[in-house]
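Field: COMPLEX_INPUT
Field: COMPONENT_COUNT = two
Field: RESIDUE_TOTAL = 514
Field: MODE = joint
Values follow.
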Amino acid sequence: MPRTLPSPTPETQHFWDGCKAGELLLQRCIPCEKSYFPPRPFCPHCASRVVEIYPASGQATLYSYIINHRPRPDIGTEPHAIAVVTLAEGPRMMTNIINCPQTPEALVLDMPLHVVFAPQNDDITLPFFAPVDAP
Amino acid sequence: MKPGQIAVVGAAETTKLGLIPELSALGLNLDAALNALADAALKPADIDGVAGVGDQPGWVASQLGIVPKWIDSTNVGGCSFMLHVRHAAAAIAAGYCTNVLITHGESGRSQIAPARYAAQPASLSGQFEAPYGTYAAFTMFTIPVLRYLKDRGATREDLARVAVVQRQWAALNPRATLRTPTSVDEVMNAPLIAYPFTKPMCCLVTDGGGALILTTAERAKDFPTKPVYILGSGESTECPMISVMEDFTTSRAFRISGKAAFASSGITHADVDHLMIYDAFAHLPLYGLEDLGFCAPGEAKHFFREARTAPGGSLPMNTNGGGLSYMHSGMYGMYALQESVRQLRGTAAAQVPDAKISLCHGVGGMFSAAGTIVFSNQA
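Field: COMPLEX_OUTPUT
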């Protein structure tokens, strides 16, 4: 049984196309220069429609997480972390932390992470994050 | 609307709580509605306004033969009923209707004709949260807490203490689902659901419902029940995605809703005799005490370390046992409101002596919504 995968909408299609191409695409407002996520064709800070899409650095830190101990046939029977990371550019996003034991000892808040793209099928690639010192 | 202008004159839960496989979700709404009508000595024909979540008020009105002149189907999760009370009070004050029936019913345990909550794959939650494993409240509502514990200098034991204190109240309540006293060690060593949360730190999953009837304070004098007046209220929302919550250590919706409730009621924190803070998970009373202004950020843990909210403490809170030990059908806000009304009528199982003001704070859709009502038994 596969994971629940996203169905892109016109407002989000660029993000998923970016993931497929190995780029984490954020948006930022031209007038107020703030970055934001999830995608939308206007700025959530000043409501300007003058916004641009740009590739983020892929660097992030671990903001918070849980380790789910309930069985998930689509993700696996082992406990797995569901995390929120703070991107270097400011916005936060939900993700999974890979290449890392799923334990409180290994998952330390504020640890540096980098994005790892994981193709799920021909259309959808999910952005996961891994510790910077992991492969 | 002025403080005390509107009152609760009918309040009741379903006849049974916990495991009710003989009733559908709609049936639970109707059982609670009939009990509240009996409590207020009203007939369905006396009701001219209805409120509930989503399509429920329409079904409730239709099934009971009510002809509504006003309807509110606000659905912001478990605190929807605080918003219904607030909206109904404003509607009655505006003259849109006279007697409003607010109902809730949920077959959380038995799943008889339940509502469905799954995120659609094209929704923002479906695209940017569900692929990583979120699906039920315990996989989302819980995510902020490790950040809270780190930044506020609190520990997992502080979460366990909340569950222990809730159980102390539940032990005094014959209708509570879990009544056996527990300890910090027992809570800490229970099975993990979602680290750092063990099972007793998470709400129950039960069947039940509740209903309220509101009218003007002037008319309230003619009812058989002791009126419980609405002094003030507040509400707010934040983003339905937990990952977009602006600060994981504090709820913006809590702060805005709480501030409005204090301002509109004209009370101070010292005036609050009895407090309900919706405890879907053990961290919510900690956030609630801080965000409602009962203490400074980081100090809520001391309320539990010093047993201030426990039986005999200076600020009795969640006196029915809460979502952790009393019951939790999915949208617990209605049961918190029922306990505030019972305390101010003087009919609670664990009665707070001489309680005059009760503040009832709800949370909904993870941290995405809040609603707060200040009640009093003095006009």
